[in-house]
Amino acid sequence: MRLAFTKMHGVGNDYLFVDLTGGRPMPPDLPGLARAMSHRRLGVGADGLILVLPSTAADLHMRVFNADGSEAEMCGNGVRCLARLAWDRGLAPLGPLTVETAAGKIKAEPVLEGNRLVAVRVDLGEPRLARRDIPLAGSEEDRPDEPVIARSLSVEGRTLGFTAVSMGNPHCVIAVDNVGAVDLEELGPQVERHPWFPRRTNVEFVQVIDRSRLRMRVWERGSGVTSGSGTGAAAALVACVLERRCDRRARVLMDGGELEVEWAADGRIWQAGPAVEVFQGEFPLPEGGSGP
Known about the structure:
The protein is α+β, with helices and mostly antiparallel strands. It folds into 2 domains: about 1-125 and about 275-285, Diaminopimelate Epimerase, Chain A, domain 1 (Roll); about 130-265, Diaminopimelate Epimerase, Chain A, domain 1 (Roll). It is built from 4 helices and 18 strands. It has an 18-stranded mixed β-sheet that branches. A hairpin with a 4-residue loop joins strand 4 (about 60-65) and strand 5. The radius of gyration is 18 Å and the shape is globular.
């Protein structure tokens, strides 16, 4: 049996989309399938697998599996790409679209130049800042409803300043003077699995260029180093605003491109950026299992 997929990316953050609308059957062993398809040498190669499903609560339902097979609550670049896929494939008319995720419903809308779709804009909702909502462990003195802003995190003998943000998924945003000097491969997994983060965390290292530009590199929970992160860019902006280091609207520059992010007056995060189809293909489903 062969599984049809579409590879797409937003700012280089690439995912394999499988359309399961129209009564198409659910493949077996989704974590194993995500690992097999995402493998950069033995599979197609991607940061994860995204299922496009029918929904009774929204226009479409999205499930996200990281490259290691773990399921994520949400994916900012993924939801923009899903919207683009839905419009291009006729799964929804070109216009406002709602997507059901494990983090809640996300609204997407096309950004047009004439008749040409040039970007996708999404409403990512309000950031969650309470310690319990990240979630973030702490001592008995730490209140579960308090925010965690510009705190210190001890990692292998070094102290990192961080702010914790949830965009429906957990983020640890670390301020640095030179993001290019950060060893993501070393620090990323140590922070992701730090005991303070019981569900692990995405890790963003952020350098403020000026009040309206941030430079970010990311270690994504379950996928490792990625070229960008949509929810990570949102969390980075929120953290820098809370630390009074940037304005509420900024460009977030990542290895794979940039996103426009705004923390609006009503508290909601809006984000606009590219959603690009790379290619379509078919993946053979292994017999007796789905992954290496």
